[in-house]
C-alpha cells in the first residue's frame, strides 16, 4: 500500500506543478515538483542506508543522486519525473508480483476455516482447526474440503483445479481418499476425517507456499552483485561528461537514464511469474532460488517404485499345470488372495475379476506377513506366496516350473500357488511403467538434460528392465538410503542435479541433490518436506514440465535485464553526448522500465517448446477406445493360449473358431471406430503430413492376420489336412498376439498427450 501512496503523491505533485506552470506560476511549479520528488528521495535514502548497514551498496544510490542532483540544479520537473519513475517502478513491481503470484495467493485465500461436523443427527459448525481424525463431516455445495478423509457417500464431485491444475471436476466414489483443498462441485456429501486440518494435505501445501514466497533467487540478487561496479561506472561517466564539457546538466542526464530499474525489478518479476505458473500446474516451487537451480539442471535421477512405476504390482504372466489350466489356476489364486491385504494378492484378485471370474469365498484363511496366505477353497488346501513360504511348508516351488522361474528372475517376482501339497501355478508379477514415464524421459532429453539415471533399492533385474524400457543412461540397483546419497553427490559433482522421489527413503537423497523434486500427491510428507519442488499431481511428467517452466522463467529474466540495461546504456551515451536533456532522459527511462517489467511478465506464458496439443473432444471417443484396450489385452492373452493349445489332433478347433469370432466382434469394430472418429481428430492436433499412418498400417496388418486365421480354420475343417495347417496357424496366432500388443502400446503412447484430465490426475 505504501508504494501506491507514494506513487499517488508524485502523480498529484506532477499534475499540480503542471497546472501552476500553465497558470504562469513558474516558481510555484518548481516548488511543487521538488516537494513531490523529495519524499521519494527520502524513501530511497532509507533503503540505501539499510543496504549500507548490511554491508552492501545498492543501485538505488544512482536514483537518489539523480533526484537530489535535479533539485539542486533547479531541474525540479526532471526530479519529479525521476520520482515518478522510482515510485512507479515499485508500484509496477508490486502489481506484477501480485499477478505472477495469483495462483499462490489464491491457494492461501481458499484455505478452509470452518467445517460442518455431524454430531448424531445434528450438524454443528466448528473451526477447521478443531477437526480430529474420526470426525464425520458434511461438505456442502461450494465448500472446501477442510481435512483429508474417506468418502462415505456413493459419490462426490470435486473441483481440484487449485491443487492439480486440471480444469475439469473429478468424480470420486465410496471409500475414495479425499484431499483437503478440493471444492465441492456437486451435491453435499459425507466424509470421515483421517487427519486433523493442520496435518492434512492442504495445510502442507500452504506451508510449502509460504516457503516459496519467502526466499530470493540468486538471479534476483544480481542487482546486489553488480551494484558496486554499476555505481562506479555511472559515476565515472557522469563526472567525465561534466569535466569534459563543464556542463553539470550532462552529468545529471547520465544519472537520470542510469537509474537501473530493469536490473532491480525484471529478474524477481520473471522468477515469481514462473513460480505462479508452476503453481497453476500443480507444481509448488519453494522460492526463486529453487526455480533458478532447477533451470540449470543437466542430470536427473529417478527413484523407481512410486515414481517411474505406479508402485502397484500387476499380473504380467502365469504358468499353470495343464491338468487344471490357467483360468482355473487364476480363479483359485484370486479366491485365496481375497483373504490377504498384500499388494500382490490385490493384483491377483483384480486380474481374476477383470476376466469376469466369480471368486468363491475362502475358508480358514491365515496370512503370514511378508510370506503368503493359506486356506481352503472348494475342498482344496491352497498355499499362495513367495518361494521361501512354500519351502517352509516342505514344497519345492520350481518343480516343473523352471521356465516361469527364469522369467521371474529376468522381469519380476513370482507368487506360487500350491494345491494339496503340490505346486500347480506360478504368477509372474510386475510393477509396470507409469504411462507418462516414457514421455517424461523424452521431454527431459528435448530440454537438454544430458544424463538420466535410475537409483532404486529394488533388485538388479527389475532395475535393468526398467532402464531398458525407458532408455536411461545408467541404473543403480540395490541402493540403501545412504547409497542413494552417495550416488546423488557423485552425479552432482559432475553437473547440476535433480532427484525425483516419493518415499521416506528418498528424503535424504532429495535433500542432497541440487534440486529435490518430491511426488507430493501420493508420496510421503518426509519427501515433500525435503524437496525443493513438490508435485501436487501424481504424474512424473510434471517434473519435466517444472524444468521447462524454470528454464523459460530464467531465460525471460535474463533477456529482460539485457534488453532493459542495453537500452539504458545507449541512453546514457546519448545523455553524455548532450543529446538527451534530464527531463527527456527521465521520460525515456520510465518507458524502458515499463518495457522491462512487461517483458519479464512474459514468463507467465508458456514458451514454444512447452506448447502441447489440445485434448481431443469427447466425441472423438478416446476415453472409450482406451477403456476397450483392457479387453483387447485379454484377447491377446487368449491368442497366445490358443496357439500354445494347438496339438497333433484338431480337438482345439472349436476353441480357435470362438477366438476368431472374438477377433471379428471385438478388434475389427474397435479399429473401424478409431479410423472413423478418433484418428482424424488426433491427426489434426498432432500435425505433420500423416501422423496416424503407422497405426493405420498396423490395423491393416491385424485385419490381414485375422483373415488368414479364418482361412486356415476353414481349410482345417474341410480338407482335414491338420498336420500341414497347424504349424502355420500357430505361427499366425503368435504373430497376431505380438502385433496386437505392440499396436495397443504404440497407440496409447502416441495419443497420451491428447487425453483430457482423468480422475486422480
From TrEMBL:
Instruction: Cite the Pfam families for this sequence.
Output: E1-E2_ATPase, Hemerythrin, Hydrolase
The UniProt entry, under InterPro entries, shows:
ATPase_P-typ_cyto_dom_N, ATPase_P-typ_P_site, ATPase_P-typ_TM_dom_sf, ATPase_P-typ_transduc_dom_A_sf, ATPase_P-type_domA, Cation_Transport_ATPase_IB, HAD-like_sf, HAD_sf
Concerning its family, UniProt says:
Belongs to the cation transport ATPase (P-type) (TC 3.A.3) family. Type IB subfamily.
Q: What is its main location?
A: membrane
The enzyme's E.C. designation:
7.2.2.12
Would you tell me the Gene Ontology cellular component terms? plasma membrane
Tell me which residues make up the P-type ATPase A domain.
Answer: 111-210
Q: Which UniProt keywords apply?
A: ATP-binding, Cell membrane, Membrane, Metal-binding, Nucleotide-binding, Translocase, Transmembrane, Transmembrane helix
Q: What class of enzyme is it?
A: translocase
Concerning CDD domains, the annotation shows:
Hr-like
Q: Which reaction does it catalyse?
A: Zn(2+)(in) + ATP + H2O = Zn(2+)(out) + ADP + phosphate + H(+)
Q: Spell out the PROSITE patterns in the cross-references.
A: ATPASE_E1_E2
Q: Which residues cross the membrane?
A: 226-245, 251-276, 556-580
Name recorded for this polypeptide = P-type Zn(2+) transporter
Amino acid at each position: 500500500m505504501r508504494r501506491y501512496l507514494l506513487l499517488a503523491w508524485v502523480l498529484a505533485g506532477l499534475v499540480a506543478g503542471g497546472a501552476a506552470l500553465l497558470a504562469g506560476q513558474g516558481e510555484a511549479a518548481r516548488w511543487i515538483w521538488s516537494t513531490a520528488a523529495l519524499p521519494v528521495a527520502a524513501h530511497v535514502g532509507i533503503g540505501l542506508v539499510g543496504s549500507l548497514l548490511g554491508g552492501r551498496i545498492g543501485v538505488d544510490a544512482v536514483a537518489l543522486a539523480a533526484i537530489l542532483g535535479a533539485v539542486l540544479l533547479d531541474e525540479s520537473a526532471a526530479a519529479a519525473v525521476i520520482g515518478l519513475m522510482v515510485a512507479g517502478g515499485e508500484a509496477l513491481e508490486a502489481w506484477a508480483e501480485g499477478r505472477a503470484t495469483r495462483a499462490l495467493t489464491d491457494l492461501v485465500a481458499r484455505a478452509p476455516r470452518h467445517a460442518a461436523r455431524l454430531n448424531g443427527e445434528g450438524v454443528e459448525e466448528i473451526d477447521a482447526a478443531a477437526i480430529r481424525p474420526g470426525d464425520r463431516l458434511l461438505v456442502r455445495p461450494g465448500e472446501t474440503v477442510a481435512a483429508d478423509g474417506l468418502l462415505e457417500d456413493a459419490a462426490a464431485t470435486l473441483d481440484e483445479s487449485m491443487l492439480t491444475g486440471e480444469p475439469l471436476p473429478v468424480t470420486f466414489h465410496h471409500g475414495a481418499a479425499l484431499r483437503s483443498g478440493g471444492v465441492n462441485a456437486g451435491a453435499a456429501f459425507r466424509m470421515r476425517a483421517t487427519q486433523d486440518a493442520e496435518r492434512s494435505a492442504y495445510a502442507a501445501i500452504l506451508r510449502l507456499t509460504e516457503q516459496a514466497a519467502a526466499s530470493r533467487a540468486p538471479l534476483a540478487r544480481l542487482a546486489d552483485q553488480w551494484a558496486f561496479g554499476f555505481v562506479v561506472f555511472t559515476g565515472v561517466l557522469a563526472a567525465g561528461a561534466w569535466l569534459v564539457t563543464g556542463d553539470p546538466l550532462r552529468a545529471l542526464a547520465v544519472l537520470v537514464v542510469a537509474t537501473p530499474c530493469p536490473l532491480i525489478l525484471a529478474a524477481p518479476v520473471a522468477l515469481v511469474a514462473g513460480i505462479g505458473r508452476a503453481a497453476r500446474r500443480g507444481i509448488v516451487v519453494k522460492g526463486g532460488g529453487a526455480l533458478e537451480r532447477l533451470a540449470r539442471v543437466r542430470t536427473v535421477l529417478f527413484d523407481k517404485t512410486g515414481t517411474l512405476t505406479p508402485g502397484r504390482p500387476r499380473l504380467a504372466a502365469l504358468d499353470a499345470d495343464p491338468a487344471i489350466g490357467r483360468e482355473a489356476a487364476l480363479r483359485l489364486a484370486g479366491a485365496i488372495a481375497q483373504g490377504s491385504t498384500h499388494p500382490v494378492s490385490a493384483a491377483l484378485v483384480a486380474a481374476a475379476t477383470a476376466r469376469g471370474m466369480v471368486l468363491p469365498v475362502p475358508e480358514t484363511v491365515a496370512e503370514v506377513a511378508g510370506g503368503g496366505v493359506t486356506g481352503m477353497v472348494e475342498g482344496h488346501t491352497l498355499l499362495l506366496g513367495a518361494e521361501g513360504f512354500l519351502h517352509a511348508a516342505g514344497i519345492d516351488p520350481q518343480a516343473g516350473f523352471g521356465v516361469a522361474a527364469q522369467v521371474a528372475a529376468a522381469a519380476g517376482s513370482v507368487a506360487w500357488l500350491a494345491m494339496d501339497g503340490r505346486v500347480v501355478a506360478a504368477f509372474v508379477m510386475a510393477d509396470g511403467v507409469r504411462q507418462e514415464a516414457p514421455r517424461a524421459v523424452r521431454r527431459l532429453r528435448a530440454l537438454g538434460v544430458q544424463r538420466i539415471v535410475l537409483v532404486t533399492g529394488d533388485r538388479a533385474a527389475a532395475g535393468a528392465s526398467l532402464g531398458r524400457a525407458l532408455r536411461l543412461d545408467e541404473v543403480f540397483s540395490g541402493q540403501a538410503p545412504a547409497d542413494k546419497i552417495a550416488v546423488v553427490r557423485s552425479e552432482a559433482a559432475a553437473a547440476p542435479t535433480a532427484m525425483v522421489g516419493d518415499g521416506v527413503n528418498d528424503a535424504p537423497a532429495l535433500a542432497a541433490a541440487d534440486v529435490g523434486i518430491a511426488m507430493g500427491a501420493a508420496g510421503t510428507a518426509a519427501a515433500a518436506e525435503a524437496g525443493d519442488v513438490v508435485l501436487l499431481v501424481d504424474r512424473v511428467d510434471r517434473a519435466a514440465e517444472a524444468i521447462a517452466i524454470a528454464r523459460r522463467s530464467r531465460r525471460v529474466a535474463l533477456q529482460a535485464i539485457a534488453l532493459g540495461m542495453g537500452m539504458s546504456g545507449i541512453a546514457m551515451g546519448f545523455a553524455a553526448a548532450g543529446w538527451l536533456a534530464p527531463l527527456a532522459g527521465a521520460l525515456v527511462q520510465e518507458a524502458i522500465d515499463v518495457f522491462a517489467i512487461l517483458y519479464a511478465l512474459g514468463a507467465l506464458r508458456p514458451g514454444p517448446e512447452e506448447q502441447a496439443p489440445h485434448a481431443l473432444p469427447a466425441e472423438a471417443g478416446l476415453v472409450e477406445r482406451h477403456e476397450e484396450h483392457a479387453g483387447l489385452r485379454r484377447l491377446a492373452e487368449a491368442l497366445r493360449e490358443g496357439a500354445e493349445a494347438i496339438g497333433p489332433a484338431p480337438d482345439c478347433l472349436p476353441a480357435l473358431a470362438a477366438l476368431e469370432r472374438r477377433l471379428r466382434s471385438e478388434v475389427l469394430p474397435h479399429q473401424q471406430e478409431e479410423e472413423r472418429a478418433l484418428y482424424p481428430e488426433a491427426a489434426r492436433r498432432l500435425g505433420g503430413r500423416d501422423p496416424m499412418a503407422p497405426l493405420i498400417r498396423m490395423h491393416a496388418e491385424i485385419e490381414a492376420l485375422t483373415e488368414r486365421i479364418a482361412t486356415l480354420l476353414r481349410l482345417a475343417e474341410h480338407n482335414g489336412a491338420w498336420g500341414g495347417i497347424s504349424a502355420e496357424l500357430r505361427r499366425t496366432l503368435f504373430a497376431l498376439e505380438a502385433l496386437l500388443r505392440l499396436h495397443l502400446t504404440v497407440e496409447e503412447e502416441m495419443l497420451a498427450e491428447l487425453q483430457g484430465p482423468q480422475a486422480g490426475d
